[in-house]
Amino acid sequence: MTSIFLDGKFVGTTAEPQKIVNEIRVKRRTGIIPNQINVAYHQHLDEVRILSDSGRVRRPLIIVENGVPKLTKDHVEKLKKNEIAWNDLLKMGAVELVDSEEEENTYIALTEKDLTPEHTHLEFDPSVILGLSASFIPYPEFNRGDRVNYGAKMVGQSIGIFSTNFLSRTDTKSNVMLYPQKPLVQTHAYSIFPYDKHPSGNNVVIAVASFDGYNMEDSIVINAGSLQKGLLWSYMYRTYETEQKRYLGGQEDQIGIPEAGVRGYAGEDAYKHLSEDGISNPETNLDSDMVIIGRVSPLRFLGTMDKFVTGMENIRETSVRLRHGDHGIADRIFVTDTTDGTKLIKVVVRDMKVPEIGDKLASRHGQKGIIALVVPPEDMPFTENGIVPDVIFNPHGIPSRMTMGQLLEIIGGKVAALTGKPIVSPAFSPTSEKELRETLVRNGFRNDGKEIMYDGRTGKKFETQIFIGSAFYQKLDHLVSNKIHARSRGPVTLLTKQPTEGRSKEGGLRLGEMEKDCLIAHGASLALKERFDSDKAVISICSVCGLVAMHDKIKNKKICPIDGESKIIDVQMSYAFKLMLDELKSMMIYPKVIVGEEE
After folding, report:
1. Which of 293, 399, 423, 558 qualifies as a cystine partner to 412, CB 3.0-4.6 A?
2. Of residues 300 and 383, which shows the higher confidence score?
């Protein structure tokens, strides 16, 4: 007997599993039972699984009977005229939604011409294999598979208009492009998804050539003139927030300009740009570590009696400051209340990001690169018609990556710019290369997209003709201004006394084993020694028992807790080593430090 499971629970057995499965499918297709139900018979497990639980991913397929699809041209025409809706196709039994379990029982044809009497379903279009991000890539079947993967990943990282109400939102961090454009070479996804409201890049004139080696290894040479006209400009918004917290014992934070005498008071200059209520005024220029919201808090763990004697010495400054290394302008300020009735303040800071050396750009074909050189427009190469490229892309990026889709996009973009009509090239049904070449010839260009170009610096004609056209480029969220980091001296952690970690905490830069080897190879022994002194400490060790001694501040004496006033020697060591000795002691291991005589 075959076991039957409903949403993972055993509900019974049957001698005719296939008959039950077929009956459920017929009833679902005729609307007797809801279309949310899926059913599958797994022969190898001898189980019938009926599924109706929420959260399953289901996809639509056209039902096929005896090699004939149930969805007819008549249905399609009625859909176009809005005479029927999508749900009507489900009710008619022309289309059904299949989940991963039921998909195991199907035999799906990719196209109508592949259909045989054995097939159970037909795909709407082969391109539905791609997800949302990948379906934005034109000519994807001409690229290697990994490049389509990279391209899809970078479509998600691109800066555009993520939401049309971004001025009312307080996202922790967001980027908005100033002058985005719709691509010249598109796929069907651009019209299905409201992409014209959420564009994420610019169409650039791109020349495939080398430029004095400045675009080696995926680097990009970019035209300064294009940047001055607003190419790929964006704003970064970051939200800073604070709450006027209430504490036990009736204490609460005070938002306002801190008074002199409070612990941690930063001086009058630090608060001069704040308004009377302690919050930055809109359009105030803010620099790294500047106060945005002034605040003072009571010291923690004050008892109920302490509040009567709370003076200046029991209050500390806890103002909200701009992150270390950031700059910006106070854009908008929200003052409201939380659900608990406490005051909540949010300040959104904006920062203009103009593309600069080190910023990451990418096409939709996984061809990513960083800006290596910004060239004045008069020094850029130009065509006979006076066209100056915005971007110079290295030809070495093509043979190893095999992104033929990018080459077709460049030709397609050139054709779209000349004809004024976007080129639509979705996966598996592209605008043919032959058609693009013919259009170029009709418009007076060579059919391969190459043109004679001249060096802007010397005026000489280049020996070879250069491939030039238009491509869609995206600016990614990896901006050098958000990542640049250096430090000499700075804060250390309380536990290990080593430098803090991370750019926002003004952290140190870690020197690893390989960096150490480089410094040894350079013979820079003093630089190496200095780098390894980040937590140098002088620790008093008892010469008898080898344990860390104590310092009696009252008598100003060093005493060993075991041997009393024995001979104590100061030893230079890394504080992390002293910490390890303490940890060993906590595990009941006796770490005896054998010390030599003081020199």
Report:
1. 423
2. 383
Q: Is 346 a catalytic residue?
A: yes
Catalytic choice (27, 273, 343, 478): 478
Q: Under CATH, which architecture does the 236-353 domain have?
A: Beta Barrel (2.40)
Q: Cα separation of 580 and 424, whole Å?
A: 65
Q: How far apart are CA 41 and CA 350, in angstroms?
A: 57
Angle at 80 between CA 76 and CA 86, to 5 degrees: 70
As annotated, the residues of the chain forming the CATH 3.90.1800.10 domain(s) are: 485-531, 536-586
Across the range 489-511, mean pLDDT stands at: 92
To the query of whether residue 119 is one of the catalytic residues in this protein, the response is no
d(C-alpha 262, C-alpha 296), whole Å = 8
**Range(s) of the chain covered by CATH 2.40.270.10:** 135-165+174-233+357-475
> How many Å apart are CA 470 and CA 304, to the nearest integer?
71
Q: Rounded to an integer, what distance in angstroms lies between the CA atom of residue 314 and that of residue 309?
A: 9
Distances (CA, A) of 360 to 342, 476, 551: 42, 6, 55
- How far apart are the C-alpha atoms of 121 and 109, rounded to whole Å? 6
Please give the CATH superfamily to which domain 135-165+174-233+357-475 belongs. Answer: DNA-directed RNA polymerase, subunit 2, domain 6 (2.40.270.10)
pLDDT value, residue 532: 85
The predicted structure's pLDDT at residue 29? 93
Please pick, among 346, 396, 497, 567, the residue that the annotation labels catalytic. Answer: 346
Residue limits of CATH 2.40.50.150 in the chain: 236-353
Confidence band of 469 (pLDDT split at 50, 70, 90): very high
CATH class of 536-586: alpha beta
Residue 312 has pLDDT above 80, yes or no: no
- φ/ψ of 46, rounded to 5, equals 55, 55
CA 355 vs CA 224, 281, 425, 579: distances in Å = 10, 28, 29, 46
